[in-house]
Amino acid sequence: MGYRLWVIGLMYIVVVVVLAATTIIEKYTGSTFVQFHIYGAWWFTLLWALLAALAIAWIVRRRMRNVTLILLHSSFIVILAGALITHLTARQGSIHLRNGKVIGTYQMNSDDGRKDSHALPFAIRLDSFHVAYHAGTMAVADYESRFTVTNSHDTIHGTTSMNRIFSYNGVRLYQNAFDDDMQGSTLTVNSDPYGIPVTYTGYVLLFIALIYMLFDPKGRYRQLLHHPSLKRGLLTIAILFTAAIFTPTLHAQPALQKDMAERFGKIYINYNDRICPTETYALDFTKKLYGKGHYKGFTSEQVLTGFLFWGSEWNNEKIIKVKGGALRDRMNLPSLCSVNDFFKNGMGYILGPLVQEYYGGNHDKMHQQVMQVDDKLRLIMELQQGMTLKIFPSTMKGTTVWYCPTDKLPQLSTQQRTFISAATAHLYNDVHHADMSQINGVIDDIRRFQYRNGRYSIPSRIRTKAEHIYNKVSFATILFMVNLTMGFLSLGWFIYKMTGRKQKRSDRTIERCLLTVLTISMLALTTCLSLRWIISGNIPMANGYETTLLLAWLVMVFSLATYRKAHLTLTFGFLLSGFFLLVSHISYMDPQIGQIMPVLNSPLLSIHVSIIMAAYALLSFTFICALMAFSLRMTQRWNDTTAVALQVLSQLFLYPALTCLGLGIFIGAIWANVSWGQYWSWDPKETWALITFMVYGASVHATSIPQLRRPMIYHAYQLLAFLSLIMTYFGVNYFLGGMHSYA
């Protein structure tokens, strides 16, 4: 029987299905099971080997002459060869060091679960272990081990820390863990002298091929850029804007005046392992209780100081939002409750028994709702007891510690202890006597104390100003409403234009208005991301909220960049960015800004996430093109010109998306290898990223799969392919989990 293309297709599908199924199996059986029985099994390696062999045979049979395509497909063969070499020859284990003790072996897990000792090509002695913290907090900045390595002819001193490898005689050492007494350190030992060079060679070939694919003068992408269909049939335009007026509810609870509460909010506090203005803590406090950054006519600073200084009155205020009907039905609670609603005469804390059931192992939905309410109540109690108000710094021997008024202060001077006690008492007394001048004086005294004793832990004025602006503007909320409104209106206008109405002079004006609004929206989101960057000191990619904002930003940038080629991208830009911003608003409600884990503080990680997010944004455009195609088909506004134009437009996004996705995946592999010694560990996130790459990669093989040349079949495939992207981003985060999950 002759060689047939369908054999490759079948094998390709089998590999994708096995990868997808394994991530689900891992959810229920654990990582150890799938690593041993699937990813580490002989048949899994055989699957990849057969796929590679079939691909080589096809390339030879077709006598492929395109250098870019040969380089691209060859790179995958080299990468798989490197992975096979690593699988067969690499050794990985761990070594536990104690100060001053010389070690010459490391521990390696055997197939039966035992730990076997293997000799190192050198002896190693730990000289010291050190944990570095961010100034004034207990947030870890880095872990660092210093040691001495000796062999028969050499003695050298080495250091390893997060994202910093020590390499010697073909053995690489990575910082892994440390002992509680800080006198010991555990290092990961990795020896892969053959697999890594081959794999990295494959990465380099892949990067060159993917990038050149977009610039090859004879390539498919260059042909698409000059396709005549882009100049016909794709127009979008329309603009209207609506505004809602909010009238605050009157309130009667005692509270500081707004200007006074705002001054209190400028006091620095050690919150969420970083030093920030108290206004940030107040904003998170109010959002946690009520779901919004304000309550009735009160600002978040007024809410915080209300609970702090007028606890008995505010404990009667129905500000605690109780989510979930199951809890409300069982306890007969309204959707908004006060603190006192949870404490009944003769019953005490009414949620107490349910909390104990949760800790006893009952984690059903109702008990999870109980714990959410319990967290809110505990937050209020801790504030009223002063436990969260770490506003008094002290620097001794170069280390700054922030204290709350109720802390024991044995190491502080008598003058400092006296000030903390007096300032707290005066503040409470002056607030209740409404002595505004005295309140101002105490607040100013506390801030002077902070600057005098906080030293380098105090944020710069620029960072403080950035945080103040960020706290006052709800960027995601405003922008998702603007972008979605503009998107749906412009989409309706586009469909109206497709009815064949003659071009009007006003169309150009409307088009310019759309362009202006999208540009302003993009600049506003740029400001939002820049402020988060300034505040945290890290590129805003540390969690799901930030990466979704980045996706929205990239969508708008791509829309503006491709606007002249196809005006329809303005509508796509509004809709896609609006939905991404809506996800940020609903799912995350603007999480706290904090320090990132040391292992995540790497430029490679930032590049990896940025490029991956760019790929997701571009692939989202192919989904919108497909939706548009089917919408027009159902409204009977479909013709050959529009069909081809939408397919070409979709492919214009598809090719750079695949380039970005390929670059992002394997730059992430390099970062993983640098950080913990494994460039691929089959985590669900990276597995699904690979699945997405493979699924979308098939759609550029129209020469081999002629059915994809037909517009509707192509668009149907893009709709289905988008499901893999949704699974990669949302499914892994909220269903499968894993190291890379943002949930």
Strand order of the largest sheet: 1-8-7-6
Estimate the helix proportion, in percent: 55-70%
Q: Figure out the total of helices.
A: 24
Biggest β-sheet description: 4 strands, antiparallel
Distance between the termini: 51 Å
Instruction: Please provide the count of β strands.
Output: 18
* Rg (C-alpha, Å): 30 Å
Portion in strands: 5-15%
Report the principal-axis shape: globular
Mean pLDDT: 81
Structural class determined from secondary elements: alpha+beta
Detail the poorly predicted runs.
231-251, 739-743
What would you say about this model in short?
The chain is α+β, with helices and mostly antiparallel strands and 743 residues long. It contains 24 helices and 18 strands.
What does this structure look like?
The protein is an alpha+beta fold and 743 residues long. The strands form 7 sheets. Strands 1-8-7-6 form a 4-stranded antiparallel sheet, with helices on one face. A 4-stranded antiparallel sheet has the order 2-3-4-5, with no helix packed on it. Strands 9-10 form a two-stranded antiparallel sheet. Helix 5 runs antiparallel to helix 22, helix 8 (278-290) packs across helix 9 and helix 19 (544-562) runs antiparallel to helix 20 (568-588). The protein is globular.
